[in-house]
Amino acid sequence: MRFRHPDGSTVHLAYCTNVHPAETLDGVLAQLRDHCEPVRRRLGRDRLGIGLWLARDAAHALVTDPSALRGLRTELEHRGLEVVTLNGFPYEGFGAEEVKYRVYQPDWADPERLAHTTDLARVLAQLLPDDVTEGSISTLPLAWRTAYDQERATAAHTALITLAERLDALHELTGRSLRIGLEPEPGCTVETTRDALAPLTAIGHDRIGICLDTCHLATSFEDPHTALDALAQARVPIVKSQLSAALHAEHPHLPEVRAALAAFDEPRFLHQTRTLTAAGLRGTDDLGEALAGDALPDASPWRAHFHVPLHAAPAAPLTSTLPVLRAALTRLVGGPHPLTHHLEVETYTWQALPPELRPRARAQLADGIAAELTLARDLLTDLGLKELP
């Protein structure tokens, strides 16, 4: 979906296909047919943006077979879909029964991460629509915090510099300008936007910036205005923003709130949980740890890294951090000029919701994703953007 900002520039809105995990190119093609096109039809649009997730094997197949890449582009056009952004965070196995810490491997100190992201850039340069010259790729924020020493930090820094040089060369070769955004996430080396400032200013290349995920922002209790002011002052580019909402519990000391939270403690994904105390931010790596005993202080609200559907906040006594998303979006695209032109709804946890909330069929999932995009569209038009055909 495309929107005209009052300054005349185009803002792109997509939804991320990591909600339909597939490891192979055949699986990706099936996603387009079975999920993405039905969402587009529900929205009544001739064109829908998707933030494509390509696992290692699928990306490698595309970069080594020009005919396969042409075939994917043809299939996108045939189904009324367009790609200006990729989700390069998960490397593989995102559809496994247990993902948890695996999603952070390989990290930016490992050569596999550089090779994979280079493949993604080469693919995206060929998938961009003919009238679009700028693409974006989100990636993990360097590494999970453990086992990340100075030697690995140096290796990660070198890899990102090498990537920036490759993106420069790709621009010269194709005319397509691609940028990479580190995505701050609780528990990682770069957990907050503040944590991103030092490594990104050290790299000092405008092709390497930040991907602002509003669920992660909220989980870490960051104020959107403070965060965006700091990024602007440091001149860190916001490559893209993922529009998502976290799980919020106002009174985690109450038994009924604990019981409601426990329904979201599931075995597939990691749900980092945080609370803001007088002594600062406290947290656990997973929701189950927070619920066990006194691992996390419960005198103030808790937030958990669980991407809840934007249009459907959890039932009381829980809620979502949609107000944080609204505040961030107002700053991102509500001013005289957009701070980013790539927005992506990223609720990958539909099948991890409590059983009674999960979609039971493809049609229900498509309905839910279309409802999320409708909410995002309404937020954008309320900010003065005009939806384009």
Your description of this structure?
With 389 residues, the chain is α/β, with parallel strands linked by helices. The protein is 40% helix and 20% strand. The protein has twelve helices and 15 strands.
Characterize the quaternary organization of these chains.
Answer: single chain
Strand order of the largest sheet: 2-3-4-5-6-7-8-14
Helix content: 40-55%
Bulk shape: globular
- The whole-number mean of residue pLDDT values reads 97
Radius of gyration of CA atoms, rounded to a whole number: 20 Å
In terms of DSSP E residues, the strand content is: 15-25%
For the secondary structure, the number of strands is 15
Secondary-structure element sequence?
EEHEHHEHEHEHEHHEEHEEHEEHEHE
Uncertain runs with pLDDT below 50, 5 residues or more? none
Number of helices: 12
Major sheet details: 8 strands, parallel, barrel
**Alpha-carbon distance between the two ends:** 8 Å
Question: Structural class given helices, strands, pairing?
Answer: alpha/beta
